[in-house]
């Protein structure tokens, strides 16, 4: 058995976050894909509270919840030579990173789901969902300016906590835009976020993410039919 | 101006959490009470995203969100002589504390609100709200056994992160029980949690909490009329 195992599911944004964090810290691990429609004994035993992926297994410890796993990874393994830890060293930098990671976790998924749901609704509700998405993106764009300094990442010159929380947007945002027939005007409205997307796409960890086309197919087959109109 | 200020509101459980954390770390601070029906420039400027208390002001930094403030406090000030930090030193201990703090934040308030709401509903819904509360309390009771060792706190012999997140239960649980006419059978069902309540009541930080009677009066006057039946 590998020293580090990750209970995973290919389309989970929370799993993507943890995979990217592990890659940035140079941690070798074995991916253990889970069938979420028929949960394994291993998953139920290692995350009895939420019964969800990702779960990191390390030294007999089970660590659950992506944000908590990322911090565990950051506190357990040193950064590879020439790279930085995911969280800043100072308490205020840590607080800022935690604040925006929490904001991203709470707001971005809701905003994306809102856009998907609004497909089936009135023009007014579509407009409201788009406006909400724009306000969330605007907040993130400001945070990127405040935290990232000269950028291009929230972590500055290298990816940090907020970057790994947000990186599932790379496949998810184009997928949702395509399915809903809307487009978030990144270039015109949020040039810093636009540059962030470009820098993430160019980073070697982008190869760990599923394609936008596969997410689009999965969401339209599995999630869209379940969304209440 | 004091070196540390806390934008506060007397009945906020999140403010109670931060006040207890500051007291445990021996940090002197000035409380700056806020009028939440007419938010001050200072509050809007220091927490533009959520516009909510608590906010900790320290060295020109604004730190928001109670869980994040508690970690900032723990990472900024050393524990007073003879006492321990709020989070354990090891990465897995930290992950466990963060997991249960997050669980408490997400589930306990919802369970209490569920009980309050169920007052106005059918016997079946009342029963369901009570069962949900019991399942949350059961999870916390197990976590206390797992994390707290010989106890009496989640932090072991002294209060830690999960304890300060949960301590607003001291006034809130009896208030909600009284208003809803139910009683969580702590003594029979959750002896570890019962001992936790007793140890918290006996701790000097309990004097920082408002009385159960004042919370009860406030909830019945301000929150109950707003709850949809």
TrEMBL record, chains A, B:
This enzyme's EC code(s): 2.5.1.18
Catalysed reaction equations from the record: RX + glutathione = an S-substituted glutathione + a halide anion + H(+)
EC primary class: transferase
One function term, GO molecular function aspect: glutathione transferase activity
UniProtKB keywords: Transferase
Any GO BP: glutathione metabolic process
GO cellular component, one term: cytoplasm
Record SUPFAM superfamilies: GST C-terminal domain-like, Thioredoxin-like
Domain named GST C-terminal: residues: 90-222
GST N-terminal domain segment(s): 2-81
PROSITE patterns per UniProt: GST_CTER, GST_NTER
Keyword Transferase tagged: yes
Protein name as annotated: glutathione transferase
């Amino acid at each position: 058995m590998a020293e580090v195992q990750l209970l995973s599911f290919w389309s989970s944004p929370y799993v993507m976050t943890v995979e990217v964090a592990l890659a940035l810290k140079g941690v070798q691990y074995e991916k253990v894909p889970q069938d979420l429609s028929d949960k394994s004994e291993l998953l139920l035993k290692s995350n009895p509270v939420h019964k969800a992926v990702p779960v990191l297994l390390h030294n007999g410890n089970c660590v659950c919840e992506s944000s908590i796993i990322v911090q565990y990874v950051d506190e357990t393994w040193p950064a590879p030579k020439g790279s930085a830890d995911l969280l800043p060293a100072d308490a205020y930098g840590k607080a800022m990173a935690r604040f925006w990671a929490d904001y991203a976790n709470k707001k971005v998924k809701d905003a994306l789901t809102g856009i998907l749901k609004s497909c089936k609704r009135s023009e007014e509700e579509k407009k409201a969902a788009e406006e909400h998405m724009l306000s969330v993106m605007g907040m993130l764009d400001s945070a990127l300016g405040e935290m990232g300094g000269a950028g291009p990442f929230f972590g500055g010159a290298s990816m940090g906590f907020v970057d790994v929380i947000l990186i599932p947007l790379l496949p998810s945002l184009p997928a949702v835009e395509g399915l809903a027939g809307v487009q978030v005007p990144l270039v015109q409205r949020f040039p810093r976020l636009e540059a962030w997307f470009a820098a993430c796409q160019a980073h070697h960890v982008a190869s760990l993410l599923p394609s936008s086309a596969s997410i689009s197919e999965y969401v339209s087959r599995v999630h869209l039919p379940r969304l209440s109109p």
